[in-house]
Input
Amino acid sequence: MAARRLTSIVIAAALLGVAGCGGDEPQSDEVGQMKAFEQTRMAQLEKLVSDGVVPPVATRLYNPNGTLNIDFIDGPNGDNDVVRSSDDGASGKKLAWDLDQDGKIERAERTITERELYDATLGYH
Output
């Protein structure tokens, strides 16, 4: 259910972005809608972290202003960089997390990329 809600919000944001394409500066109501979306998305992500669905490092997927930063490790593989266990996700042991919430950490969940972490915040696993 949460995954559907998150997916709906992402689709709505994408549609808002397409509606704003035309070379003109964004209208203030469009900017307000995007800021509201970013705030909602951050609140949802914080809930996923507090519920243990995703690890705390998942908050690094967003910049302090709420914009997406799927390449937060800034390594050589783009969003396919492996997330590590440190607070910044760039150092330490490989992060292992039960992203699909099935009660066990599968082999694929012992090497998590930035993209896989992002997908888990959307309910994909």
